[in-house]
Design a protein that fits this description.
Elements: E1 9-12, H1 32-36, E2 49-52, E3 55-74, E4 80-95, E5 98-99, E6 103-105, E7 117-119, E8 122-123, E9 128-130, E10 136-138, E11 141-145, E12 149-151, E13 157-159, E14 162-166, E15 171-173, E16 179-181, E17 184-188, E18 196-201, E19 204-205, E20 208-210, E21 213-215, E22 233-238, E23 243-244, E24 247-249, E25 252-255, E26 259-264, E27 266-267, E28 270-272, E29 275-278, E30 291-295, E31 309-315, E32 318-319, E33 321-324, E34 328-333, E35 336-337, H2 343-346, E36 347-349, E37 354-357, E38 413-420, E39 424-430, E40 438-445, E41 448-453, E42 458-462, E43 468-476, E44 488-490
Parallel strand pairs: 1-2, 2-3, 3-4, 4-5, 4-6, 4-7, 6-9, 7-10, 8-11, 9-12, 10-13, 11-14, 12-15, 13-16, 14-17, 15-18, 16-20, 17-21, 18-22, 19-23, 20-24, 21-25, 22-26, 23-27, 24-28, 25-29, 26-30, 28-31, 30-33, 31-34, 32-35
Antiparallel strand pairs: 36-37, 38-39, 39-42, 40-41, 40-43, 43-44
């Protein structure tokens, strides 16, 4: 973006600011809430930046129609927190904030908050509820909530987000022509008998699910997994169609249920190069084997005939089971059943749940079809095909494919714990390195794990009120772990 020569920088500091100040770095305003409730109102133009410093910025209903993006972002080295919703707001870019509770972007009666972006924000106890079009959600980290993404609008982009510790549907989408790609969804918690879907859609058209990783849980000893009478975790559920012109490709799913991917009532939908495997022990029961299925639409009455799903493509997938029956027309090509006995010889490191293909896995390598223009990239962004034909599943085995990974990340360094009165402890550290990629960091207070971040090198320990020593530990995709950082001690005044 080319910044206007008249654009301005403003600073907002709950600890040392005053709303009567000029809003400069040396004389900052007080809180974001004060800025948006000021009399007369503060005025902004496209290209302006509001840099927020650490502290509690209050509760803000963000409004204002801009002609280009106005930026609200954390100043480098700061972790500001705010409760935030958007109403009659356009062209705002929100970056690097800790946002408490759920973010409402418009509502069903007012969809006039379109063309906004949230990037690299941390939501420790909420999610996004989107009721306006052209919303981009990029690189955010969302934890501890019900439906983390309710996307009930059109033409949006949801990319590179991490969603973990959810107790309802993780992603719920009503709308058309949206793209959900390269997100990580993990760790469903069972709190009632209602089933959880990692992604549930509603009748719609033109949507894309690409390169996402869905893990029902990452720790098989998670306590609530064994509560009797509670439901299991489904993958991608598109029930009660019609679903038209969807593309579902290069996704990886670990599910604790028979439903890996199910389209129930589809027209011209493409499901290709996905990998679906079991996550828990329920899959040991034959009728619970994780599957990919396309069926006709749900009958209008019990015992009725399913209306036909038409012109669909099911191609180059890997799963423990497939279903394509007489209620579907289209092409069912080169889908490979891989059962548990073959996991070790098919996947690079099944013990660590690494589903990249093992060298020499002839059951899936070069076994795909080139019909219908399959994807030119795999889930890692590597070119397809790397051999004589497309590989089946989400990953292509080629010159850039990883080998089994046993190397841990380097130890995090430079940990700082900054206490803020009535607020919490703000943690910052220097990034670790890894032979592949650092996936995230676990945070500890007095040796007890308090949280995890995948979105950067900072964390807010909200409402910490006891003296404690903090440490941080890096991990990679194979769960190789660094040594603990040196401790940093803090006490909230």
């Amino acid at each position: 973006m080319i910044r206007s020569s008249t654009a301005a920088d403003y600073y907002v500091d709950p600890v040392a600011g005053n709303i009567a100040n000029a809003g400069t770095a040396l004389k900052p305003w007080s809180t974001l809430a004060a800025v948006f409730s000021a009399t007369p109102p503060k005025a902004f133009q496209a290209g302006d930046h509001l840099y927020l410093r650490r502290g509690d910025h209050g509760t803000v209903v963000l409004s204002g129609i801009n002609t280009g993006d106005v930026f609200i972002e954390a100043e480098a080295g700061h972790t500001p927190a705010v409760k935030l919703s958007l109403l009659n707001a356009q062209h705002w870019l929100i970056k690097g904030l800790t946002i408490l509770g759920a973010v409402e972007i418009g509502n069903p009666k007012n969809e006039n908050s379109h063309d906004n972006t949230f990037e690299n924000c941390y939501l420790p106890n909420g999610g996004f509820r989107v009721c306006s079009s052209r919303i981009t959600l990029r690189g955010n980290h969302i934890r501890n909530g019900g439906i983390h993404f309710q996307y009930h609008s059109n033409n949006g982009l949801v990319t590179g987000n991490t969603i973990e510790d959810f107790f309802s549907d993780a992603m719920n989408m009503k709308g058309n022509f949206n793209v959900f790609e390269y997100n990580l969804v993990m760790n469903s918690h069972k709190v009632n008998k209602n089933h959880n879907d990692m992604f549930q859609g509603w009748a719609s058209k033109g949507n894309v699910l690409r390169g996402n990783e869905f893990r029902a849980f990452s720790d098989p000893k998670q306590p609530d997994l064994v509560k009797p009478g509670l439901s299991d975790v489904q993958g991608i559920g598109l029930f009660d169609g019609w679903y038209e012109d969807w593309i579902i490709e290069n996704n990886v799913l670990f599910v604790d249920h028979a439903i890996g991917i199910w389209l129930e009532g589809a027209k011209r939908c493409i499901v290709r190069n996905n990998t679906v495997v079991r996550c828990g022990e329920n899959a040991a029961i034959p009728d619970r084997l994780p599957n990919i299925r396309i069926t006709g639409k749900k009958p209008g009455k019990p015992g009725g005939t399913r209306p036909m799903s038409v012109d669909c493509i099911l191609q180059n997938n890997v799963a423990e089971r497939f279903e394509w029956d007489d209620s579907v027309t289209g092409q069912n090509l080169n889908n490979i059943v891989v059962d548990q006995k073959a996991f070790g010889s098919t996947f690079l490191d099944w013990a660590k749940r690494d589903l990249h293909l093992k060298p020499g896995a002839s059951n899936v390598i070069d076994r795909g079809s080139s019909a219908n223009t399959p994807p030119k990239l795999d889930a890692d962004g590597n070119a397809r095909p790397a051999g004589t034909a497309w590989d089946c599943g989400a990953f292509e085995r080629g010159p850039n494919s990883p080998s089994a990974d046993t190397a841990p990340p380097s130890k995090p360094s430079g940990l700082r714990a900054i206490a803020i009165a009535n607020y919490g402890v703000d943690l910052h550290w220097s990034a670790s390195t890894d032979n592949r990629k650092v996936t995230g960091y676990d945070l500890f207070r007095n040796g007890v794990k308090i949280g995890r971040t995948r979105a950067g090198t900072n964390y807010l320990d909200i409402n910490a009120d006891t003296t404690g020593t903090y440490t941080v530990q890096a991990f990679d995709h194979s769960d190789n772990r660094s040594a603990l950082s040196e401790g940093a001690r803090s006490k909230t005044p």
